[in-house]
Inverse folding.
């Protein structure tokens, strides 16, 4: 992954962590994955170049974990031990408010806000189930990379076929005449 792609991953991670407030690494992994899939499906473009693997407990990305560690080293993120719902305590990620963190273009930040609105109240089991029902996850072999670029290309081809369909062209012409 290039330096600019790594910076992009860091900026997306920071935005998600800020909007989720206290978030575990596990929840960040699942939320980031869903943001990638939904970006492909809604905007026909990748959010970042991040790769995810298909693990038993849902999608997971080593480069995302490395981005967290880099942000921690830069003093942008801290890990905080707090009481948790299902166990006495857990390690949460928090963006330091006193530090200037990497930022995203407004349209990406707005998109991530919509993603957060969809997942913020999901419990962990439900969030994992949602990630596992996505088409890219289901098509991936266990313990293998999830082909997000292939998913994007498939949707692009589908959109192109629809745009070039004589039936769609006729429907558009009919609508214009009305």
């Amino acid at each position: 992954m290039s330096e600019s792609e790594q910076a992009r991953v860091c900026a997306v991670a920071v935005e998600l962590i800020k909007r989720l407030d206290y978030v575990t690494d596990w929840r960040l992994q699942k939320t980031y994955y869903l943001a990638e899939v939904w970006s492909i499906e809604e905007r026909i473009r990748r959010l970042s170049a991040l790769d995810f693997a298909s693990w038993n407990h849902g999608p997971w990305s080593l480069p995302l974990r490395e981005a967290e560690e880099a942000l921690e080293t830069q003093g942008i993120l801290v890990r905080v031990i707090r009481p948790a719902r299902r166990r006495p305590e857990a390690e949460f990620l928090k963006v330091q408010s006193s530090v200037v963190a990497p930022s995203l273009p407004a349209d990406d930040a707005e998109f991530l806000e919509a993603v957060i609105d969809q997942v913020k109240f999901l419990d962990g089991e439900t969030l994992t189930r949602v990630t596992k029902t996505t088409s890219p996850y289901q098509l991936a072999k266990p313990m293998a990379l999830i082909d997000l670029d292939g998913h994007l290309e498939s949707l692009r081809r589908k959109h192109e076929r629809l745009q070039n369909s004589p039936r769609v062209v006729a429907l558009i012409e009919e609508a214009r005449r009305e």
